[in-house]
Amino acid sequence: MSRAPRALTWAVDDGIAVVTLDLPDRPVNVISRAVKDEFLAAFEALGRDPAVAAVAFFSGKPDNFIAGADIEDFLRLDSAAAAERLAAEGQELLERVARFPKPVAVGIHGTCLGGGLEFALACHYRVATDHPKTQLGLPEVQLGILPAAGGCQRLPRLIGVRAALDLILAGKSERASKAFRLGLVDELVPPAILRPVTLAAARRMAGGWRPRRRRPGGLGGWLLEGNPLGRALVFRLARRQVLERTRGHYPAPLAALEAVAYGLRHGLGEGQKREAELFGRLAVSDVSRKLVQIFFATTQLKKDYGIPDPPEPMEVRRLGIVGAGFMGSAIAGTAVAQAQVDVRLKDADLPRVAAGLRAAREILDDRLRRRRLDRYEHARLVALLSGTDTYAGFRRADLVIEAVFEDLATKQAVLREVEAATGDRAVFASNTSTIPIARIAEAGRRRDQVIGMHFFSPVARMPLLEVIPHAGTAPWVVSTAVAFGRRMGKTVIVVKDSPGFWVNRILAPYVNEAAQLVLAGVRIEEIDRLMVDFGFPVGPLTLLDEVGLDVAAKAAGVLHEAFGERMAPAPGLGRLVEAGHLGRKAGKGFYQYKRGKKGGVHPAVYELLATHPNGGPRPAEIIQRLVYIMLNEAARAVGEGVVRSPRDGDLGAVFGIGFPPFRGGPLRHADDLGAARLVMELERLTERCGPRFTPCEVLREQARTNAKFYP
Amino acid sequence: MPNANGRRVAVVAGCRTPFARAGTVLKDARAVDLARHAARELLHRAELDPAEVDEVIFGQVVPSPLVPNVAREVSLLPQFPKEIPAYSLNRACASALQAITAAHDQIALGHANVVLAGGTESLSDIPILVSRRLSDILLEASKARTLGRRLRAFARVRPRDFVPISPAIAEPSTGMTMGQSAEKMAKENGISREAQDRWALRSHQLAARGTQDGRLTAEIAPWFPLDGKGPVITSDNGIRTDTSLEQMAKLPPVFDRKYGTVTAANASPLTDGAAAVLLMSGEAAAALGYRPLAYIRSYAVAAVDPGWQLLQAPVWAVPLALERAGVQWRDLDLIEMHEAFAAQVLSNLKGLEEKGYEIDEERINVMGGSIAIGHPFGATGARLVTTLANEMQRREARLGLVSVCAQGGMAVALVLERS
Lengths: 711, 419
Hints:
The complex is a heterodimer.
Chain A: E1 8-13, E2 16-21, E3 30-31, H1 33-48, E4 54-59, E5 64-66, E6 68-69, H2 71-75, H3 80-98, E7 104-108, E8 111-113, H4 115-122, E9 125-129, E10 135-137, H5 151-159, H6 161-170, E11 173-175, H7 176-182, E12 187-189, H8 194-206, H9 218-225, H10 228-246, H11 251-266, H12 268-283, H13 286-301, E13 318-322, H14 326-339, E14 342-346, H15 350-369, H16 375-382, E15 385-388, E16 399-402, H17 408-421, E17 427-430, H18 437-441, E18 450-455, E19 464-469, H19 475-487, E20 491-494, H20 503-519, H21 524-534, H22 540-547, H23 549-563, H24 573-578, E21 591-594, E22 597-601, H25 605-608, H26 619-639, H27 646-656, H28 666-673, H29 675-689, H30 697-705
Parallel strand pairs in A: 2-4, 3-6, 4-7, 5-8, 7-9, 8-10, 9-12, 13-14, 13-16, 14-15, 16-17, 17-18, 19-20
Antiparallel strand pairs in A: 1-2, 10-11, 18-19, 21-22
Chain B: E1 9-16, E2 20-21, H1 31-46, E3 55-59, H2 70-75, E4 86-89, H3 95-109, E5 114-121, H4 132-143, H5 147-155, H6 178-189, H7 193-212, H8 245-249, E6 271-281, H9 282-287, E7 294-303, H10 314-325, E8 334-337, H11 342-354, H12 370-373, H13 380-395, E9 399-406, E10 410-417
Parallel strand pairs in B: 3-4, 3-5, 8-9
Antiparallel strand pairs in B: 1-6, 1-7, 2-6, 5-6, 7-10, 9-10
Helix pairs in contact in B: 3-13, 4-5, 6-11
């Protein structure tokens, strides 16, 4: 029998067992079934060994403690009962750790998430490094499940109900310094002394010493948490907030709330049972499956450069940006904040450069305010931003992104200037949303170094980037653009150089249909509300206001020209633009805005559109029209190879438009509805509303052959 | 002229912030911000790989106690690798010039190939000191271990202890201020009020011309206001285009109200600003593909008794530098002479004339001087070298001289040549 290399090893020194978890052949530690078995065996042996008085536990990975439970185990679950069993096993293991007769201290450096944090919570003393890589959290709800290895029980008992709910319900992770303030860890130390401090704690505990922990929260804490009445209030508020945020689409946070509440009422043991039961139900739920699929797709995409056999990307150390306007400055600020590159921002005159630098800096200031940067880091990053009205400082730029006025001749002129100002290896990326990259490249001498990088607004917050090679773009240029997009913190999809690329292509018919519905007499708020209820973060008309009606009209014109009648802009939108209803930036669009705050529907809009809100179609049909027209266009674009895979298409829609993640994306959603049904409904809509609903060939073919995007 | 080991030192490029009268458009910037701005823009304009820089040397006359080594903060700009050593120095108003000569020495010795040298000053942001008594009390209170002792320490504070002390521009050895010294020089050298005003007017007129035709603004890195509000600063704000002899004549003398001749108009103003110069060995410049503006041929430092004529040391530094360069005064095509006061410039020129040098005003301060452009103490030397090197390039001049007088009765002179 060959022995598999072990993940857990230990050595006993002077009464202390120093245990190290280091999964062979894995970049990070995860807790799988096999690892659990090793844990059981290890604690069994340590319990028996008379030479062991206490345990000190560490990770053998450089910047990772434990990333969580092994998600592969989780995917193999085929029933709620099996999932419940899995949770119960984990709970049992951690119960053993918690009740282990010899004290256990953990030294945490690097990410400590999910099951990893639950393990740490079961130990008796936690020391964490003050390193930025040390992050602690319970991200389970983001995958549609809940912490089910006792996390919903031990965390509120350690740091108080409100702090625990903050952590569990949002699924976010905290830096070690915050975790220390919360009482999640007992000590915060520099990495160099993590080991001795943890060992010393284990030794002290072996001698009978026990950490004394402050009751969390003081008097206010007692009023809200120390008695059933206060707790009921806390839970009621938390529940309301969760419902506001999720609109009932995501059951996991509510289940987590229930597990915490139940455990506090009935004790830790009963709480764990409830926790496991709820986990069982969530684990096999459709929502969780979808969220896990997205998680996996995103993880896969992080290793995918969008081309076969991708060459090594060129490292971008200096970034030039031409155009210091809204997009250019936001790209500058985000590039500095995320990728920490030297950014040179160029525009035609200095006042514009000054305004752009200020807007870029605002992104850094915002991070300073939200304490994501300390003031020294902030000052360092601010110094990476500089501006100019000449091309001085561009000679050594590795990548230049243009964000000038959306006009072919202007962009071509900029390309020529940039080629003259930069070295031979500089990549030129256009942030156009409507102009074919190949057309821009025509003006260049180094056409193979021209590519599209389509950012979404607001750049600092929108997670998607479309990278668009034209037919002649060199592969190393693609991998360079993709790699840099990732350094900017974006999820990057590589899409075909065709009108509207991917996101605007599928977005245009959707927002256009929203306008058609207004013309058909539906109230503007009604349309937006229905789509928010469907799961979008904002409704289509609010979205139009955010994007700018003029910008949208320009894009719509390009798509109309490229694809013909089905993309014809709804009549009347032009009149809104002419009347200055450009959206939020103008203070009026479909809605009115006062001092940056969105108010009600603008009183003049219906009149400008020559319509009356007198009802229109039923809500079910409104939803169908809006969603199906998008699914149809998405299917058509996939057929044309606009995205390389349904996976890229779905991620693009989720991260670029906010397509409801629990529905998996437009192509997953189409699969769920079934092509046959979709085709039938689209044909019905074609009859009633016009040929723009004509089902595309991809869906027809799928309906005929009973095929799916995801077989 | 090559040094003993054959290494020549090239002036490759220079760059500076706008110079602004203290308390005006640059008042919110600290000296370190100004220095970093000038240095960073110089890197960008020179298209230099920052990793090529071997050392950073900056001058500053009134350093902030919070940033004692301003040069290190420059070399810690995120554009640089963190391993570039840096130090700050103080040779009063000749500090930046001293930084350049120090850089020259490091390069000539072969210790460095590329050095960034410059200077910075914010006279809007000078440290204000508390009285010695108050400082003693605060120190004692901070060491006190009990509340009682701390209170007892504070109980000794008297209202007069709160009168702040700002550093004066006065000689510690004689107590005479700069202005008083200039006044003394004017009297002892017989420099009239009218001659001083005339020199000041000339400084403004030439600086205005240099600004208008872009020769002066070419060396300026536009300053973007820190808060994003207000206009971008692209030129020096002390230069007057509207002044006249008549207007200047109306100003009262500041330092000797009865018999004095030195006024606010014929002295350099308190100024905020920074300047930086990129120096390389001739080989490094060639290898990196630069065509140097000029080469350093020689330099010299001299000092006189501060109680005599405080700012008259150029009369000794200049001949020494010329002697070391092996060139004659009459061979100099251009001269940049720091203008602390018109009385000082005219005294220096008179002293040189007495040594047999023929004075040709046409070659001196052809774009005006510190009286008009301004004088951030620590930065002026680098401004003068930049201005001179650029103008030598434009005129295809062969030899140029920079002379800077300094507190303590000192002066530094430096000869540039184009091959």
